[in-house]
Structures are given as structure tokens and as C-alpha cells.
Design goal:
single chain, mainly alpha, globular
Length: about 500
């Protein structure tokens, strides 16, 4: 890997992160909260100065006008390091509000990875604080790198490697000839849906500030809310259903949504195999949980359907917001909801988890192997949307799923032993790795706080959140010796 290219890209990203961090100052000035100018101004200066120093220290990095021939290993390194730096820089403002360093990093990484797990025990903070929490989720929803690819000319060509390094999936899914145009199109859909949700929430009676923050978190599949009781605190079925619908689209492929909009053909949703699987699994789990809530938890039919559907979509898309305290549900309902934590959303969405495409391909691969046992000489091609999937891609997916459960098990065991609590260990680890947010129980449940868990558990969860957001590969590849080979040019 060439240090000049790494330094040039990382320094650019740090300087632009510094500009993004200035955004909450506008909210602080609107609400005459002049103290809140200081945290974001300081964080912006630190990030921008860090980028400037890197450009000065590494020879020739400042002379590079573009990054057109960036290599895949370099892209993986840049993306991984950028997300770590992004998390650290976004944590700085929290320090000014009295949060300890590890708690600040936890809240920051939970925000940028759209996990939504929080260490807050009270919500007595200024508006700029809550705006920042939601904004970090909105920026992390599609990815900070995807944003910079869309707006920075330096990444016009190199962006291809970085685009797929930040959000790797089973296949490289781009729908315009230039990756920069693809990134721009995704952000237009993303921003358009966010604006539409803000308008609908305001019309439903939500205060404008809360509507903006909740819309940022919903479309990012994040879950942070300025209300201490999440969506439950608004006591409105209209608001619950508006957020429910937009959560569902946050977990759907933005690529697919762009095609539907451009071709003005909603039926394209149902021609997509991944979307059909996503919709069917959502309806199946929602129906089962609704039956349990109505028969065992004394919910009305409407209430059971509403809250079952809301929580299944919230967990499946890794949004993690709550319309009720599901930690109080019947044991059967909680077991079903725990299974949903492994479901995942669609590829090219804001949601986390394993992703439905991978589950579809794993299921087809298992079926193909069983058929080969019955018919040894037959050739079985694995297809998705009538397109052949190369065998190497199927192997990569199987390896991905294996490592996903291996990392989950490792984190779960360590947190369980540290906390001496299996509920915290199991649900805390999958909510971190799957970027889901709340787990079960009083401490890590939807109305709880992660503030009281051990520092080791918090550090593991921070790592898990970053690994899950980058979908393992940039993390796993760093354990290869060949990856750590540097040269100046």
C-alpha cells in the first residue's frame, strides 16, 4: 500500500469531517444555546487540523490531485481507518457535555454505525446535542464515504473501490455507468425520503425539531430519538405507523427504490427476489408475534398487529426504536424477536445484519448441495433474479456467515462472563454486531441504558458495532500479514 495515497485520502476525509461537525452550531444558534457552539467548533478544528498535519507529514500526499488508481487493499484500509477516525471525532462533542471518554466513544460509534444503543440515563441535554446524535446516524446510514464520493471530485474514479469497501455485498450493485452518479442517486433517494417523513410527522402532530431528528434516525435505520421513551413517548398511532412504513423502506434496497422511481413501476419491488424474501419474513414473524401478543399479553387486535409489525421491522432493519417496551413481552414473543435479530435487511439499504440476499443464497446453496447428493452428475446453477451467481461469490457468502456467527459467539461469551448475565451477553453482542441497538432486560432493553455495563463490554460492543457496519471484510482482511505492506509511492 502506498502511504502517499493513504495519507491523501484520509487527510481529505478528516478535513471534510471537520466541516460536517460544524452543522449542529446552526441548531445551537437558533435556540440561543451559545455554549453548544464550543464542543462542535473544537471538534471541527481538531479533525481539520489532523487532516492538515497528515498531508504535511507524509511526503507527496499533498501533491496528488486525485486517487484514480487506488488499489483494493488501499481502499479497504482507507475505509476502515476513516470509520475509526469518524467515530473518534464525533465523540469529542460529547466530552463537553460531561460524558466520560469511553461512554462518549460508545455513543458516537453507536450513532455513526446506526446501532442506536445508548449510554444516556437522562435526556436533559440541549437541542444541539440531540441533533448531533441523529445527524451522526443519518450520515452513517448510507455511509460517510459514499457521501464524499458523491461530492468530492478527488474520489470520482477511485470511489468505486471505496464504495464497495464501505458497503460490501454479495455482488457489486451499481446502476449508473459512473460510481459517483450512483452515490449521488442514492443520496437523492435517501434525502428525499427523509424530507417526506419530516413533513408527514409534522402533519401528524410531532414538533418540528423532533420530526427532523426522528426522520434522520429512521431513514438511517438508527433509532436514536430526542424522546427518552423513543417512539412510545409520542403516544400516537399515526406517528407509529408513519415511522413503521419509513423504517421498512430504510431496510429496503435504495438501488431498487431508485429504479422504481425512475421507471415509475412499483411492481419492480415484487420482481426482486431479495425484496420478496424481506417482505415475506417480515410478515411471517409479525404475524406470529401478533398472535402471541393478542392471546398471551392481552393486546387488542389493532395494538397487537401494530406493535408486532413495528418491532419486527425495527429489529430486522436494525433501527432499534421502540413503540412499546418489548422487554415486558411474553417469553415466546421475545424468542421470536430474538430470531429476527439475525434476519437482516436488504443489500444497499441503511439496515444492518447479515442481509437477506445472503440468506437467500445460503438457502439456495444448501438446496443445491442436497440435490447433488441425489443427482451426482447433474449441474445446478445458483441464481438470484434469474442471474447466475458465480461459485466464488457463494463461497464468500458462506465464509461471511460463518465468521459472522463466530464473532457473535466470541463477543457473547466474553460479555456474558464479564457481566455474569447471559441475557446481556447474547442480546448485547448481536445488537452490536447487527447494529440493532436495544436488547432484552432492564439494562440493555429498549427503555434501558448501556451505561452500567463493564468497560470491557462497552469496548467489545464498540468494536462489534464497527465490524458489523463494515460487514466484516475490511476487519478480517487486516489479520492477513500481506495486508500490512507499505511503501511511500
Amino acid at each position: 500500500m502506498r502511504l502517499s495515497y493513504l495519507a491523501n485520502a484520509i487527510s481529505l476525509i478528516m478535513m471534510y469531517i471537520g466541516m460536517v461537525i460544524l452543522s449542529p452550531i446552526i441548531i445551537a444558534l437558533i435556540y440561543h444555546d451559545f455554549y453548544s457552539v464550543i464542543p462542535f467548533l473544537c471538534a471541527s478544528i481538531i479533525s481539520s487540523a489532523g487532516g492538515f498535519i497528515i498531508r504535511k507529514l507524509v511526503p507527496q500526499s499533498k501533491e496528488l490531485e486525485n486517487l484514480n488508481d487506488i488499489k483494493k487493499a488501499e481502499a479497504l484500509f482507507i475505509v476502515a481507518v476513516s470509520w475509526i477516525i469518524f467515530g473518534i471525532m464525533c465523540a469529542i462533542p460529547y466530552l463537553f457535555y460531561g460524558l466520560p471518554p469511553l461512554d462518549s466513544l460508545f455513543e458516537s460509534v453507536s450513532g455513526i454505525t446506526t446501532t442506536g444503543a445508548t449510554i444516556l440515563t437522562n435526556f436533559d441535554y440541549p437541542k444541539a446535542f440531540f441533533f448531533w446524535r441523529s445527524l451522526t446516524q443519518w450520515l452513517g446510514g448510507l455511509g460517510i464515504i459514499v457521501l464524499f464520493i458523491a461530492i468530492l471530485p478527488q474520489f470520482a474514479v477511485a470511489g468505486r473501490q471505496m464504495f464497495f469497501a464501505e458497503a460490501p455485498g454479495p455482488t457489486e450493485d451499481k446502476f449508473t455507468p459512473r460510481i459517483r452518479n450512483t452515490a449521488s442517486a442514492l443520496w437523492k433517494v435517501y434525502a428525499g425520503l427523509t424530507l417526506l417523513q419530516v413533513i408527514l410527522l409534522v402533519l401528524a402532530g410531532m414538533p418540528v425539531f423532533d420530526a427532523v431528528c426522528n426522520s434522520f434516525s429512521t431513514l438511517a435505520a438508527g433509532g436514536f430519538s430526542p424522546n427518552a421513551q423513543s417512539i412510545m413517548g409520542y403516544h400516537s398511532n399515526y406517528i407509529t405507523w408513519i415511522i413503521l412504513i419509513f423504517m421498512f423502506f430504510a431496510g429496503s434496497s435504495f438501488n431498487l427504490q431508485y429504479k422504481v422511481i425512475m421507471k415509475k413501476n412499483p411492481l419492480l419491488f415484487f420482481k426482486n427476489e431479495e425484496f420478496r424474501a424481506y417482505l415475506i419474513m417480515t410478515l411471517v414473524f409479525s404475524s406470529l408475534i401478533a398472535i402471541v401478543l393478542i392471546t398471551e399479553n392481552n393486546y387488542s387486535i389493532f395494538g397487537g398487529i401494530t406493535h408486532a409489525l413495528y418491532q419486527v421491522i425495527s429489529i430486522a432493519t436494525s433501527t432499534g426504536s421502540a413503540s412499546v417496551d418489548f422487554a415486558q413481552w411474553d417469553f415466546t414473543a421475545k424468542v421470536l424477536l430474538f430470531l429476527v435479530m439475525f434476519m437482516g435487511s436488504c443489500s444497499s439499504s441503511a439496515g444492518g445484519g447479515i442481509k437477506m440476499t445472503r440468506w437467500v443464497l445460503v438457502a439456495k446453496s444448501m438446496k443445491a448441495e442436497l440435490m447433488r447428493i441425489l443427482h451426482p452428475n447433474a449441474v445446478f446453477n445458483i441464481k438470484i433474479d434469474n442471474n447466475n451467481v458465480p461459485p466464488e461469490v457463494v463461497r464468500q457468502i458462506i465464509v461471511f456467515v460463518f465468521f459472522y456467527f463466530l464473532i457473535f459467539a466470541l463477543i457473547a461469551v466474553i460479555i456474558t462472563l464479564t457481566e455474569q448475565n447471559a441475557t446481556i451477553g447474547l442480546t448485547g453482542s448481536i445488537t452490536a454486531l447487527g447494529n440493532i441497538g436495544p436488547g432484552f432486560g432492564k439494562i440493555v432493553g429498549p427503555m434501558g441504558s448501556f451505561s452500567s455495563i463493564h468497560s470491557i463490554s462497552k469496548a467489545l460492543m464498540v468494536t462489534g458495532m464497527l465490524v458489523g457496519r463494515l460487514e466484516l471484510m475490511p476487519f478480517l482482511v487486516m489479520f492477513q500479514r500481506d495486508f500490512w505492506s507499505f511503501k511511500e509511492n
